[in-house]
Amino acid sequence: MHSVRVLAVLFFLATASTAFAATKAIKFGKLVDGRGRVFTNAVVIVEGERVQSVASGNAPIPSGAEVIDLSRYTGVPGLIDAHTHITYYWDGISTPRYEPPRHSAVTAFLAQENAQKALEAGVTTIRNLNSPDGTDLAMRDLINMGKMIGPRMFVSGLGIRITRSTAPPAPIGIMADGVDAVIHAVRQVIASGADWVKMYGSTGGFDDVTQSQTFTFEEMKAAADATHALGKKIAIHSYGPAGARDAVRAGADSLEHATDMDDQTIAEMVARKTYYAPTIDHNQYYVENADTVYHFPPGAKERLLDYIQRNFETAKKAFRAGVHMISGSDAVYNGWGLNMRELDWFVKMGMTPEQALRTATTEPATMLGLENSLGAVAPGFYADIVAVEGDPLANITAVSKRENVRWVMKAGQVVVDKTKAAGKAN
Q: What residues contact residue 191 under an 8 Å CB cut-off, 6+ apart?
């Protein structure tokens, strides 16, 4: 009943009129703007969807502006999760992946819970990579229309896979074999309205940590070329080094998960400016829930733990070499709300907190081609702003832990406000 009430409130808020957007003046004790500047006693003026100005101290506040006093918090840009699966909804009862089939409209409605958890983690933008039946396209459009509350979405629709025998549940995607079929599949995905193309270049997923390459180099290059010819970008999934090597050489715009990559592949990523989402933490929450939620077979946790360590070491090597790193949670089912735990791994591998924060702000914004609109609190940018407890430049957990996120604005609208609850607690 609680979930039903939450969804009813969300639906009411999403469908309420937002035609009038008053000027807002937001005060922070400290603001990390995402562009390397830190403002003390910051005042951010928001006009409609966009930031109008950012200043320190006793900045003038426009007459009639709504003043939002968050001076006890630190402000940061709205966070970007560069690899998610928002339509993978869990009812909390069934075993994930083995739930009864649902109509895509039902899935979109239920997935609002995932969307809300993302916002509560400070995530105002996601890149969603693989979803059935155009469901993520529908959610993207409903959110853009203001008829559903959720993060801004850039979506791939159906991922492209090879045809192969596999155990149930049947994988989601378009099956394509050979260069011509791959080109056709890319065109289908883009014609459906997708923002990105997602291609599965190897086996691997959930408790399966195998790394066998699936598509050939020629097929991957055909996919990348066809994608780029239509003005879009392509993300290629590869758990293993062979698929990763060919994905990078083929022209992937981003590489997902890849582990055990050799120095030559990493150097090629640096040269080509290939973005890398190692998604280390998603396997960690599989380990944490292997027995109680996912019911993985014996031995799965041990295999996952081994893969996590190798994934971490590969990502550390890539970071030290200068690869463009992006934070991706690979959030599915009960992973929603944990979207920024990946930042803890990045700091552990040697990033400063500021560098880790960039992987969830300026880096993915640039990957999306929106470096002048997202990833910073600056004049002309979307007013995507998050208030957190603590100083993220001193301790990244200020943003990586959902409980430290107290308030969230997306495009000038407050979508999360836990400041009153915090005040009562203190």
A: none
Residue 113, sorted as left (phi over 0), alpha (psi -120 to 50) or beta, turns out to be alpha
Do the strands 38-47 and 50-56 form a parallel or antiparallel pair, or are they unpaired? antiparallel
Q: What is the mean pLDDT of the chain?
A: 93
pLDDT band at 421 (very low <50, low <70, confident <90, very high): low
pTM, two decimals, is: 0.93
CA dist list (Å): 191 to 31, 154, 187, 224, 398: 41, 15, 6, 16, 41
* Count of Cβ atoms closer than 10 Å to residue 348 Cβ: 13
Whether residues 139 and 250 share a domain: the answer is yes
* Pair (34, 94) in one structural domain: no
8-state DSSP, 334? G
256, 380: one domain: no
- Determine the structural domain holding residue 23 and report its residue range: 2-78+375-425
Residues 399 and 255 in one domain: no
- One domain for residues 356 and 379: no
Average pLDDT over residues 347-359: 98
- Give mean pLDDT, residues 189-213: 97
Number of domains making up the chain? 2
Whether the pLDDT of residue 13 is over 60: the answer is no
Side-by-side strand order, sheet with 413-417? 50-56, 38-47, 24-32, 66-77, 385-388, 405-410, 413-417
Is the separation of the CB atoms in 175 and 143 below 8 Å?
Answer: no
Which sign, positive or negative, has the C-alpha torsion 164, 166, 168, 171? negative
**Same domain assignment for residues 355 and 413:** no
Looking at per-residue confidence, does 112 or 6 come out higher? 112
| Stretch 335-354: mean pLDDT | 98
State the residue for tokens 């009411």: 12
Q: Which two tokens stand for residue 9?
A: 């409130």
**Residue 86, domain CATH:** 3.20.20.140
